[in-house]
Amino acid sequence: MANLSKRLISNTEGNFFVDSTCIDCDTCRQLAPTTFIEEGDYSAVFHQPETAKDELAAYQALIACPVGSIGTVTKNPKIFSKAQATFPLPLEDGVSYVGFNSEKSFGAHSYFIQHPEGNWLIDSPRYLKHLVQSFEERGGIRYIFLSHQDDVADAARYAKKFGATRIIHRADASAMPYAEWVIDGKDALFVEPEFVFIPVPGHTAGSMALLYNNRFLFSGDHLWWDRDLQQLGTPENLVWDDAQLEQSVRTLLNYSFEWVLPGHGERIHLPGRDMKNAVEKLIQDRWNRKPSQP
Predict the structure, then answer these.
(1) What are phi and psi of 24, to 5 degrees?
(2) Position 294 in a domain
(3) Exposure check for the chain: N or C terminus, fewer CB within 10 A?
């Protein structure tokens, strides 16, 4: 819970605030961009919500914050409850952003696919009664796809609760040693008609992406949308092997998708051709740049 005595001076005056426990994970800025902004090493409130829509979004950010660093001087229980009920937050075609990001994964996003053959959880949120009930109402969880070792969070607890099969690559399996389904090698694995496991080593040795229905790419920490540059981004600092990261990004050109749904970073929805162009531009800017002339 946010502490008013730790309120950052960078916040504008008003009801919502961010305190000094913020880990700058960007969750609040994605959910409520009209309220929160990055200031140095923290998020801060730069504009207090004025409309009902903006207030709801600010409460969604408060709820999703992995470390509870967002608070209000005066809580509105009605709007808070309304915001909580929006999670999992529907995106499209049975795919939802779960919310309730976990500190254990530095605030990584997780996602839920409601599917007639069994539901999927992609990476893990905090283990909470609200989410357990929400998943139960939607038919439970059959599979938990873990994109890499950093974002497993409370996956073991959800697996135990729902009897779910956990999926992880062998190179990152030490993070989930009792996973029921361990993937080997670098070849894509086609599972049922709509699902493809795509190994994308680079950020970690065992990073994987999940492609669903040739539309949704759950990319872990391998690929995201950079809203400042208005283009796709990929890790540059926390990289296990940059040459393999480059090859992994190039591999994505073999697939069609319209959504990039990352663990960290902003999600994006583009027409398929535009998405492929965005991947090509990323490769050009990140790896094909010519050395500057003296």
Answers:
(1) 60, 45
(2) no
(3) C
pTM above 0.90, yes or no: yes
Phi-psi region at 163: left, alpha or beta (left = phi > 0; alpha = psi -120 to 50): left
The answer to the question of residue 153 being in a domain is yes
Collect all residues with Cβ–Cβ distance below 8 Å to 286 and sequence separation of at least 6: 234, 236, 246, 249
Kindly indicate the confidence band of residue 1, based on its pLDDT and cuts at 50, 70 and 90.
Answer: confident
Show contacts of 82-91: CB within 8 Å, 24+ apart.
Answer: 82/56, 83/56, 83/59, 84/59, 84/130, 86/56, 86/60, 87/60, 87/63, 87/130, 87/131, 87/134, 88/112, 88/131, 88/134, 89/60, 91/259, 91/261, 91/267
Q: Do 249 and 234 contact (CB within 8 A), yes or no?
A: yes
Please tell me whether the peptide bond between 116 and the residue prior to it is cis, using omega within 30 degrees of 0: no
DSSP-derived 3-state class of residue 245: helix
Average pLDDT, the chain: 96
